[in-house]
Amino acid sequence: MPRLSTRLGDMGTGLALAGLGTWWAWHAAAMGLGRTADLGPGAFPFAVATLLALAGLGCAWRAWRRPDPDQPTVRIEPEALLGAALIVGLAVAFATLGLVVAGALFLFLMLVIVGQRRVLPSAIAAIVVTVVLALVFDRLLGVQLPTDILGLTR
After folding, report:
1. Which of helix, strand or coil describes residue 73?
2. How many helices (H) and strands (E) in the chain?
3. Which of 4, 42, 84, 95 could share a disulfide with 28, CB 3.0–4.6 Å?
């Protein structure tokens, strides 16, 4: 795998997180933020995405302002790149497919590819966990989740 200076790697990671957070906040705002007394389904994702974007900008700023340009190089692990790609894929899939499908797909891929677990138990675990979480948050706790393509969330 490639070797990068930690400064360049930190700046790139920070900017990537800021971009992902901005994209996610834009999609969350399109779902509707609601009002102060009645928050819409996009309010919580918007807040998390805004924090992600600000944290990413903070990381990039800190790396850019680092006084020592002769930082040692760092080896980028393939598993880290794969995990980052899966997280970006989750954000994209969440906006288009909804919580249950995107969550189940993400957990399944993380278990099989990164965790090196068997396919069938991973699929069962991913489906059970995401359906239970969706039902708990949507039905029991009353958290407004975006409409899921399977109809499990409102």
Report:
1. strand
2. 5, 2
3. 42
